Amino acid sequence: MNNNEQKLSENLLNTAVVIFGVTGDLTSRKLIPAIYELYQSDRIPNNLNIVGFARRDWDNDHLKKIFKDSVRSYSGKEIEEEKIDQIFSNVKYIQSSFSQLEGYEQLRKYLIDEGIKNVLFYLATPPEAYETIIELIGKSELSHLTEGWTRIVIEKPYGRDLATAKNLDKLVHTVFNENQIYRIDHYLGKETVQNILVLRFANGIFEPLWNRQYVDHIQITVAETVGVGTRAGYYENSGVIRDMFQNHLLQLLALTAMEAPVGFTANCVRDEKVKVLRALKPYDAKGVLDNTFRAQYTSGYIDGKKVIGYKDEDGVARESITETFLAARLYIDNWRWSGVPFYLRSGKRLPKRMTEIAIQFKQIPLSLFNWHNMAGDAPNVLVMKLQPDEGVTLSFGAKMPGHINQISPVEMNFDYEESFDIKIPEAYVRLIQDALYGDATLFTRSDEVTSQWGFINGILDGWKEDPRKYLPVYEAGTWGPPGVDFFIKGDNRHWRNPEV
Ligand SMILES: NC(=O)c1ccc[n+]([C@@H]2O[C@H](COP(=O)([O-])OP(=O)(O)OC[C@H]3O[C@@H](n4cnc5c(N)ncnc54)[C@H](OP(=O)(O)O)[C@@H]3O)[C@@H](O)[C@H]2O)c1
After folding, report:
1. Is there a domain that residue 42 lies in?
2. How far is CA 370 from the centre of its chain?
3. In-domain check, residue 326
């Protein structure tokens, strides 16, 4: 721990983390292991109060036991039983519905009795509950209860379109100031996502090439092998556009395309990201249909195992036209990127779990070698691999050794785990740390989330004009239907579909 971290950790004396939805999946799989890992690495003190709020008939001891089991089951770090006991020594369970004011009054009394100075509220709840909880936090005057700080972390999804996001924002702002609000997009907590900025702005060699003069196009892919599983109720109303595009893909796009911030502070970084989102070229209704490609998975094979199609999943309507795959062509109307297409795609039941950003550089102006060229005309691709196999590769053409004149594609490769000999930490560890330390750089600002929805709303509106009653389908375990290849081939480009 460095001096700054030590000071920040000391500032956390008399601090409570209040988790709404403490009995849920996110709490046990991510939040509790992250709190343990922060303590294990001395980044938070051991007298943190953890308060849980939910309906289930649990008590303090049971919650403590569940917390300890979560760490043992889900923490990627060494399990130190003594430290588990220490960090979960102050645990309080409040059994209440989110809509009962008495629960909040009980919470208020507990925080006062314990002499709490700082409070971090965490909404790990279904999104429909956000407004009720925020209203009742306001009503019970919990948002400015203490002499220290009070902050609120709000999970995704933040709204389901521009209007609902704005309404939610309006409500949150009646209870909290913007600097108290930490909207999560857990992609920003990933080391490799943060490395996009380091690669770009801590190195001199990439930035001069990072523009319309040298870049042919950019591909951003977030591919999942999983289907909807038990989340059909949510997914049917969301689709990949709300589940992945509005948040993760637009975040990756903004980090890739933004200008250098004037400083590495929360507002400077977010100012630049917002400028990119505002510069996204809006589509008209026809433009939406020309520049987006939706599809839905049918049955197929993933890792050699037969899986069912989307319409056969539990909770999915037979006539569903919810997209499980989306590819889109976006343009950023600014001096740096004018005319450079950004191809974004994401889908479920694709052959490989993979997130990457590929910067495809332009062709050489003139070919000198009349040789067999296996590297192709434009071999230079810089790929930021975000998961799995985190790292960066740069591809180029090299002369094959020997008497045959042949150019072969080769790669320079940086692998995160190999270079630093560590396991990449979970995004939630960093995000909870930053929320406790008061650093909002990796959280989404109000104008950022509304700019994201503003753009996405244009696509949703365009789709409403689409007369089709069904979507093209793709077999599970493939990279989408043939149409998605034509979508990009028309631009004389092709998708990077890695071998599985
Ligand atoms: N799970 C993940 O990996 C993940 C990842 C990214 C984002 N998220 C987001 O995180 C949030 C939580 O997800 P989750 O998977 O943890 O959900 P979940 O397993 O369904 O948990 C929901 C929690 O809310 C409580 N709850 C629901 N309605 C309540 C009410 N009326 N009064 C009191 N408590 C109530 C439940 O407690 P009781 O049943 O005990 O009442 C439970 O603790 C969602 O917004 C989700 O989008 C989750």
Report:
1. yes
2. 45
3. yes
Active site annotation includes 248 = yes
* 147 and 102 fall within a common domain: yes
Q: How many structural domains compose the chain?
A: 2
Write the CATH number for 234: 3.30.360.10
| Residue ending a domain, choose from 104, 133, 155 | 155
Total-model pTM: 0.95
1 has pLDDT over 80: no
Query: Of 125, 190, 428, which is best to mutate to test ligand 1, by the most ligand atoms within 8 angstroms of its C-beta?
Result: 125
Domain range for 194: 188-420+447-489
Can you give the pLDDT at residue 76?
Answer: 84
Within 10 A of 421 (CB to CB), how many other CB atoms are there? 7
From first CA to last CA, the distance across the chain in angstroms is: 40
- The residue whose CA is least distant from atom 37 of ligand 1 is 54
With 90 as the cut, is the pLDDT of residue 5 above it? no
Same domain, yes or no, for 250 and 301?
yes
Rounded average pLDDT over 194-207? 96
If you measure from the C-alpha of residue 122 to the centroid of ligand 1, how many angstroms do you get, rounded to a whole number? 11
Q: Which helix (H) or strand (E) holds 306?
A: strand 305-307
Please give the average per-residue pLDDT across 91-113, as a whole number: 97
198 shares its domain with 243:
yes
Ligand 1 atom closest to the CA of 184, numbered from 1: 7
Position 9 pLDDT exceeds 80: no
* 215 located within any domain: yes
Distance of CA 99 to the CA centre of its chain: 29
pLDDT of 7: 67
146 confidence band (pLDDT: 50, 70, 90): confident
| Weakest mean pLDDT among 39-48, 116-125, 327-336 | 39-48
Same domain, 145 and 192: no
Which residues, including other chains, have CB under 8 Å from residue 170's CB and lie 6 or more apart? Answer: none
pLDDT above 80: residue 434:
yes
Is residue 428 within a helix (H) or strand (E), and if so which, with residue range? helix 427-437
**Pocket flag, ligand 1, residue 476 (CB < 6 Å):** no
Domain assignment of residue 387, yes or no: yes
Whether ligand 1 lies within 6 angstroms of the CB of 25 is answered as yes
Collect all residues with Cβ–Cβ distance below 8 Å to 412 and sequence separation of at least 6: 393, 394, 396
* 426 touches ligand 1 (CB under 6 Å): no
What stretches of 416-499 adopt beta strand conformation (E)? 473-475
Q: Which of 248, 372, 403, 494 is catalytic?
A: 248
Question: Is the separation of the CB atoms in 168 and 131 below 8 Å?
Answer: yes
Q: Do 330 and 407 share a structural domain?
A: yes
* Structure tokens, 308: 């069912």
| 42 CA distance to ligand 1 middle (Å) | 28
Q: Of 392, 391, 439, give the one whose Cα is nearest residue 269.
A: 439
The domain spanning residue 22 has which CATH number?
3.40.50.720
Q: Percent of the chain scored above 70 by pLDDT?
A: 98
